[in-house]
Amino acid sequence: MSETTLADLAHEVRSKNAGPFWVTMELFLRDADGYRIAADESFLNERVIAELYRVEESTVQMFRIPSLNVVKISFPRPISQGSLRDRDMHAGQHHVPLARMAIRRPADHDR
Q1: Residue 99 phi/psi, 5° resolution?
Q2: Which strands make up the sheet holding 70-76, listed edge to edge?
Q3: pLDDT digit string (tens) for 70-89?
Q4: pTM
Q5: Could you tell me which residues come within 8 angstroms of residue 66 by beta carbon, excluding any fewer than 6 positions away?
Q6: Pairing relation of β-strands 10-17 and 61-65?
């Protein structure tokens, strides 16, 4: 049995530039149940994003929008847009690690 990921709960998971120095990622969840999982601060929070993207936890901004079933995440780009070492000019691939995050099963909460 394959594990369920955030991408499985979402209509779309995307990332994009928020100016030349920031990345924004958005989770558009299919329904309120998926939103409850993705918006749960014990599952997805600033620390988790900081570890996943190797950024400072204090720089991560998260916005939970229940009326739209959306979770939005922003953090500074590790490499500014268009610089010599920039390998993703539009930050269009940054969402992949987030989308691949495995969802905890209810039994996982007891551990």
Answers
A1: -60, -30
A2: 10-17, 22-29, 70-76, 61-65
A3: 999 999 988 788 778 777 77
A4: 0.84
A5: 32, 35, 39
A6: unpaired
Cβ neighbours, 10 Å, residue 37: 16
Q: How many whole angstroms separate alpha carbon 85 and alpha carbon 75? A: 18
Provide CB contacts within 8 A for 48, sequence distance 6+: none
Longest dimension (CA), the chain: 47
Cα separation of 72 and 57, whole Å?
A: 15
Residues sharing a CB contact under 8 Å with residue 46, sequence separation 6 or more, in sequence order: 57, 58, 60, 61, 62
What is the C-alpha separation between 76 and 21, in angstroms, rounded?
6
Angle, CA 61 vertex, CA 60 and CA 62 arms, to 5° = 120
What's the DSSP call for residue 55?
-
